[in-house]
Structure formats: structure tokens, C-alpha cells
Amino acid sequence: MADKESFLHLARPLGPAPLGAQPSTAPLNVVVQPQAIFSILDHALRRPADQERVIGTLLGTRSEDGTEVEIRNCYAVPHTETAEQVEVDMDYQKQMLQLHLRANPREVLVGWYATSSDLNTFSALIQNFYGQQGDGTWPHPAVHLTVSTDPGKEIESRTYISAPIGVTAERAADSCLFIPVPHELKYGEAEKSGLELISSAKDREDRSQPIITDLEALERAITHVLEMLDRVSTYVNNVLDEEAEPSSALGQYLMNALSLAPKVDAADIERDFNNHIQDVLVVSYLANTIRTQIDLSNRLATAALTLGTGDAITGDGEQQQRGGDRQRGGRGGRGGRGGGQGRQQREQEA
Amino acid sequence: MADALKDSPIKAVQVEALVVMKLINHAAKTFPTVATGSLVGMESLDQPGLLEVTSCFPFPNVDVPASDDHRDNHHNNNHKDLAAAAPRAKANLAYQNEMIKFLREVNVDANNIGWYTSTSMGNFINLNTIENQFFYQKDPNEKAIALVHDVSRSSQGSLSLRAYRLSPAFVAAYKEGKFTTDNLQKSGLRYHDILIEIPVTIHNSHLLTSLLHQLPSDAPKEELSFPPNLAALLQDPNTPEPPFFPNYDSLDLAIDPFLEKTCDLLLESIENHHTELNNHQYYQRSLAREQAKITAWQQKRKAENAARTASKQPLLPEDEWQRLFKLPQEPSRLETLLNSRQVEQYARQVDGFTAGVTTKMFAVKNNLLPGES
To answer: Residues in domain MPN (chain B) (predicted)?
Structure first.
């Protein structure tokens, strides 16, 4: 989805807006986080049946000089649009912004989104509202993100900033020139595991996926790597058999990759392997021992100890209870020391 | 566990992809502080028992300690505890209600159905979690869940997202607030029964599925033209980025941090357990002391009464000891129960980790030392 097109940004004469109220039209780079896109798509699904598009506010961070904008979050804003007029719930927008800023104090208002690729007069009006002084993004330009959500078509996203246009001040209020700016979709390290699970559901009929265990994930990753290795080795074999066309660049790349393989002594590997496998097993063993001990201690604490006398009368029961507790204390303590030793041992090995 | 799940009004939880992303982002942003927030959604109409989590929002950061101590006085002003206690703070309840009111206007399923929290290495079974979940679940009809996202484990590969509810037996016991040995004997409540885990599935919307198909996923299958040189190859747009699925992070071989952390946490649990035991022993000792005193007093009174009978004087009452002596209060066993459950959680986690890591290690060994398999 990230646009690979190149952008050319041209300076142009500005409209008649009063000097000083001019938002900057310097080019900027926009980074969109998947969370924002997901949220926009969700909003598009929940739009009122009679509305073509819905809009919302984009939140995110801006670099100090204002040339990098990261869209991190967004929320929906109710609006109604007819052929003649557009109404945006300003009050809602303001209050929602405040609620969001309370939870995410570091994010700022960066612009707005619409769920259709069309730009029209109303877009210009809303754009000017978001870019205005006071509540808007001024002196930075408001970013407008459009995400097309036509069923059956590819989802296309575009980002714009705007420049004032129009002959008179009145005309300038409801018109503006949208300037496309480059944007890309980026995800963070932390989101990777989530995206993995989400995209593993994309080929399924019911579009859902149970949480996969670590072992399953490992298995899939290994299968995938093996497939890729197979593909490469088939190609290399074909080249050797003079069936496929050789490429020096590919050869060089493969050589570079192969030279990354560590050269280590077999004895070292053997030793490291044994050390580590022992660590793992010791910790696993200890954890389970502790679990058993604690289970035992809980059972002893709540079991009605009778010692075969039939019924435990209060006084006796109390006495034996205490015995049980004392025993428990001893065991718990021993478990603790055992854990401590295990750790020291492990640290020596590491 | 399986039986417990049958009785629960909620049998499965379906989480929208949006919620997963929001949760991960929030947790990553606040790590290592606990991130908490509210879940909204509804019970599925066609499938009773399936809870659909369709959206969520974070609770505001807690800066004002004064706003947040109506149930939590013993937790001092520790910031960590405040963040963990956020879901039941008054200020946040107001925030939640307001947020839900606004979300309703844009057609989000505006019912609160629980809360989420982030954790590290499964270290989430504590009084805070229990109190939060109890707060949401105390109403018998309340279908509230707790979603727990493990930041540390998710960073090692596959996503760790779990849904929990308190078991009805535990809720009943917690309402009474009595966790004495006698009560536990009678109710048969054990630490296994505190939390019920509910299976979680991830669900994508149609639009999202369509978007995902546009994202880079796999190496192109068709024949590509050859790059002229190495630099061109590195910049080639056809060179696929690592796909989301499968995630190569799960091939990572770093095991020491995990083991170290687990050991630390286990030690901590054992220490807690030990403290609780000492408390209990102290109670037993003082109880025995008091009882010895009472017996001595009773014998003295009996002897006195015998002397009085002999001298035909009126008898002194024999049950006066109830006023004179006060038996010590038995300390609550709740902390011990939670601690035990926490240890069980760690042990299971280690088992799962061992399974994966031994496989990887043997694979690496055989790969680096071919011919020795």
C-alpha cells in the first residue's frame, strides 16, 4: 500500500489570505500506523446507511521542524452531508479530543480523514476548519488522509496538505488546493506479533483465527524458511546445470548471505549447547517442583487432618493444623533455597 | 477447568483486529508500567455465549494520587499500583462512561464488557487484578472479561492474549471476604478455581481482509528479471519485506533473558509464600497462647467455684472468659491462594517455553555440527 511514486513539490504563489495566518505549505512526510488505518476501516463499516463517507480526526506526533508527521490514532466524528451543506459536530470533536488527550497526552491533533477518495468543496471546508488557528493545527498544515472503502475494490489511501486558493477572502474560506504528499504505512516492533496473527486469518473463510501457541508459530516459521531455502537451492542447481540464467548480482548476494554463517569450533558448540540445555531443564524442573510443593502446601493447609480418629474436633484439629503448617514452612523454605541455588548455578554457567 | 467453563455465561471471546492493535500499542507505549483500559462490545446475537470485543480505549494516565484511593488505601502512592488499580478508580469510571456515551454517537457497540491489562511474563495474578475483575463482575448478570496481554512474551514471537473471568465460587467467597482455613475447607475452593480462562479468537472485518491482501506477504511467485548489480537488488521493490505471517521472530534463540526473568519471578513468589506462611504461623502461635491462657483461667475459676461450693457461697459465672480474652483474627488466605495460582502460571509458561526452545536448540546444534546427529 505504501506509495512508491516519487513526489515533486513546487512552490507557488499563495492566495490572498492575510499574511501571518498562512499555514506552512512545506513538504512533509507522513507515516501512518496500522492502528489508525484499522480504526478508519472500522468506522467505515459503522457508517450510517445513508451516508457515502464518514470523517474523523487524526492524532499523532509531529517532528520538531514539522516535516515528519506520524499518524498514530484517530477517532470518528459524526457529520452529515447533503447536496447543499455539510455539518460537522464541532462540540463532539472538541470534547472527544480532550478525552483522548487525557489518555494520550503526547499526541496532538494532526489532521482528519475521510473514507472516500473524493475531494470536493466540503472537503475544502473541513480542511480549512482543521487547519485554522486556535483549535486547528495552525501553524502546521492539517493532514488529510483519504482511504477508499468501496466494496470489491482495492483500498487506496492518499494524504494531502492544503494551500489557500481563491480570489477573495470569502472564496478562500471554502476552497483550498489539496497538495498530495507521500505517505507510508509503518508498523513497530511490538505490533509485529499482533499483525502476524491478524494476517494469518486473511485466507480463512470465517476471517477469524484462534490464538496460536508458540510451538505452532515456530513450526510455521520453520516450514516457511525451508520452502524459501528450497526455492533458492533449486535455482542454484538449475544454474549449475545450465538450465537457468545465471546472475552475478544474485550470486554475490548469496555469497554475502552465506558468509554470515558463524565459524565456530565444534567443541564450543557442544559446550554451549550442553550448558544452555541444562539451564533450560533446570529452570523447568525447578518451576515444576515449586508448583508441586505449593500445591502440597495448599492441600495440607486446607485438608481436614484427622489421623484416623474419625472426626477432627476443634482443639485437636487446631494442634494438627499447626503441625501441618510448620511442615509447610519448612518445605516452602527449602524450595526457596533450592531456587536460589539453581539461579546461582545458572548464572555461573551463563 | 473445562467444567468451570461450561457454567460460565461466556464461552468464547472474539476480539476484533482493531482491539488487538490498540491494546498492543498502548501496552508497548507504557511498558514497563501496566497499561489498563476499557473494552466495549456486545454478546453475539446468533451465538449466545460468544462475547465480541469490538473496540477499546485506554484509561488516562494517573497523575493525581488523590483521585484514586477509595479502595486502595494500603497501596500507598506507588505509581505502578495506581496504574494497575485504574480500572476501578472513580475518576476513570466517569471517563469510561463519558467515552462510551461519545462512542455510541458514532455507532460503536457501546456496552462496557470488561477491561484489559498488560503484563510482563505472566506476572498478573495479584490482588489488583482480582479486585478489578471483581469490580466488573460482581453483578451476577455482568458479562465482563479481563483481557491480558503479555508484552514480554509477545515480543518473543507469537502474540500472547488471554481472556479471564473469576469463577462463581471465587466471587461468592470474595463477596463474603472470608478466606479462613475453615471456610476454604467447607467450600472446597482451591487455587486452580480462581480464574477461568476463556478461549480467544481474532476476527477481521471484510475491509480489513481486503487491506491485508494488499500488504506484502510472500515472495513473488512469478519469474522476475535479474538485477544488474548488488545495489539494485537491495533496492528492488520486489524484494519482499519480511511478511507478517509467519513471524520470524519466533526463530529467535535468545533464551537467557527469559530464564533469568522467570527465576526472579519464581523467587519472588516463593518469598511471598514464605511471608504468608510466617504470618500464619504467628497467628497459630498467638492463638495457642490465648487458648492456653483461657484454659488456665477456666481451671482457676473452676477451682474457685469448687471452693465456693464448699463454703456455700454463690457461684461465679464460668463463661466470663469470652469477655476477658479475645482470640486473634485468622489472617486471610487469599494472598496464598493467588500466589499459588501465580506459581502455577509461571510453571505452565516455563513448560511451554521449554518445549519450543529445546526444539530450536537441537535444530541449531544439528545444523552447526552436521554428521553428529
So the answer is: 13-170
- A67 φ/ψ angles, rounded to the nearest 5 degrees: -95, -10
Q: Is A116 exposed, middle or buried (0-12, 13-18, 19+ CB in 10 A)?
A: middle
Strand (E) or helix (H) holding B85: helix B79-85
Q: Which residues contact residue B304 at a Cβ distance below 8 angstroms, ignoring those fewer than 6 apart?
A: B316
A-chain residue closest to B92, CA distance:
A103
What is the spatial distance between Cα B20 and Cα A218, in angstroms, rounded to a whole number?
21
B311 CA to chain A: closest CA distance, Å? 34
Tell me if A62 sits within 8 A of A68, measured CB to CB.
yes
Q: Which residues from chain B sit within 8 angstroms of residue A253, using beta carbons?
A: 230, 233
Residue A287 CB-density burial (10 A; 0-12 exposed, 13-18 middle, 19+ buried) = buried
Q: CB atoms < 10 A from the CB of B363, how many?
A: 14
Cα–Cα nearest to B297, from B331, B323, B270: B323
Nearest to A280 among B259, B369, B372 (CB): B259
CATH superfamily of A23-189: Cytidine Deaminase, domain 2 (3.40.140.10)
Tell me the whole-structure pTM to 2 decimals: 0.78
Written as tens digits, the pLDDT of chain B (373 aa) is: 445 556 677 888 899 888 988 888 888 888 778 888 889 888 887 777 888 888 888 888 665 443 344 444 444 445 556 667 777 778 888 888 888 888 888 888 878 888 898 888 888 888 888 888 888 887 766 788 889 988 887 777 678 888 998 888 888 888 887 777 777 777 777 788 888 888 898 888 888 888 887 776 666 666 666 777 777 766 665 555 556 666 666 777 777 788 888 888 889 998 998 998 899 889 989 999 988 988 998 888 888 888 888 888 887 777 777 777 777 888 888 888 888 888 888 888 888 888 888 888 888 888 777 665 4
Give the residue extent of every domain in chain A: 23-189, 212-261, 265-306
Q: Give the ipTM of the model, two decimals please.
A: 0.78
Give the number of other CB atoms < 10 A from CB of residue B362.
13
Distance CA(A186)–CA(A183), nearest Å, equals 10
Any CB–CB contact under 8 A between B351 and chain A? yes
B147 touches chain A (CB under 8 A): no
User: Which residues of chain B have a CB within 8 Å of the CB of A196?
Assistant: 158-159, 244-247
| Contact by Cβ (8 Å): B101, A78 | no
If you measure CA to CA, which chain A residue comes closest to B280?
Answer: A325
